[in-house]
TrEMBL record:
<keyword id="KW-0677">Repeat</keyword>
<dbReference type="GO" id="GO:0140297">
    <property type="term" value="F:DNA-binding transcription factor binding"/>
</dbReference>
<dbReference type="InterPro" id="IPR001781">
    <property type="entry name" value="Znf_LIM"/>
</dbReference>
<dbReference type="InterPro" id="IPR050945">
    <property type="entry name" value="LMO_RBTN_TF"/>
</dbReference>
<keyword id="KW-0440">LIM domain</keyword>
<protein>
    <submittedName>
        <fullName>LIM domain only protein 3</fullName>
    </submittedName>
</protein>
<keyword id="KW-0479">Metal-binding</keyword>
<dbReference type="GO" id="GO:0046872">
    <property type="term" value="F:metal ion binding"/>
</dbReference>
<feature type="domain" description="LIM zinc-binding">
    <location>
        <begin position="86"/>
        <end position="148"/>
    </location>
</feature>
<dbReference type="Pfam" id="PF00412">
    <property type="entry name" value="LIM"/>
</dbReference>
<dbReference type="GO" id="GO:0005634">
    <property type="term" value="C:nucleus"/>
</dbReference>
<feature type="domain" description="LIM zinc-binding">
    <location>
        <begin position="22"/>
        <end position="84"/>
    </location>
</feature>
<keyword id="KW-0862">Zinc</keyword>
<dbReference type="GO" id="GO:0003713">
    <property type="term" value="F:transcription coactivator activity"/>
</dbReference>
<dbReference type="GO" id="GO:0045944">
    <property type="term" value="P:positive regulation of transcription by RNA polymerase II"/>
</dbReference>
Length: 232
């Protein structure tokens, strides 16, 4: 099977008894219904073009379907089985594209990996944390590091900056860090949904392409009305 991306166009079905009936790519029977779907270079009964995983009717869930490993899939199941969007900045494991994640200054984290690098405490939405030297720190551990740095250097200074949301704080160590240009505390945002970056253009603007680790096909499925019913 050749894999690529096709934007499909279609015309009406058989124009009369002298023309062959459209044949369904799934069941192999003639398509006698008023409407049919055209996708992946085949014509389908509307009830026959289904996702191999969730069995949803693809004509009802969108205009795009995917084919890989001899499976016809909806977008959600394709991403669940084959999609990814890079690796977690904490554990370095691949993050499936359907998972909820946390994003901090370009880094992406599994929800279970998003915690203080020092004490491993987990954060909830609305908690405060610091992002310093590519590490996520809770307020307590960040302040401990500042105090240690201040004791060792005598100036408590630093040059790291952070453009995230600034919130009020009363700690003398944190006030000194702010004056010295150190990172401000950041409010934990809501969880984000990953989008598969490698597929961002496939849905809206089909083009010939290949994906690493094996080919795939994504096609725009079109619904057509047959000009006349086919009778034997």
């Amino acid at each position: 099977m050749e894999h690529g991306q096709d934007k499909l166009t279609g015309s009406g079905g058989g124009g009369g008894s002298g023309q062959a009936a459209n044949v369904c790519g799934e069941c192999g029977n003639a398509i006698l219904d008023r409407y049919y779907l055209e996708a992946l270079d085949k014509k389908w009964h509307e009830d026959c073009l289904k996702c191999a995983c969730c069995d949803c009717r693809l004509g009802e869930v969108g205009s795009t379907c995917f084919e890989k490993a001899n499976l016809v899939l909806c977008r959600r199941d394709y991403l669940r089985l084959f999609g990814n969007n890079g690796s977690c900045a904490s554990c370095n494991k691949i993050i499936p594209a359907f998972e909820l994640v946390m994003r901090v200054q370009g880094n992406v984290y599994h929800l279970e990996c998003f915690g203080c690098a020092e004490c491993s405490c987990r954060f909830c939405v609305g908690d405060r944390f610091f992002f310093w030297n590519n590490l996520i720190l809770c307020e307590s551990d960040y302040e401990d590091r500042l105090l240690l740095r201040s004791e060792l250097s005598g100036d408590g200074g630093g040059h790291a900056t952070n453009e995230n949301t600034i919130v009020d704080h009363n700690s003398s160590a944190l006030r000194a860090a702010t004056a010295a240009g150190m990172p401000h505390p950041v409010i934990v945002p809501n969880h984000h949904q990953l989008t598969c970056g490698s597929m961002a253009n496939e849905v809206s603007e089909p083009m010939e392409m290949a994906m690493g680790g094996g080919g795939m096909t994504t096609a725009m499925s079109h619904r057509h009305e047959q000009h006349k019913y086919i009778t034997n």
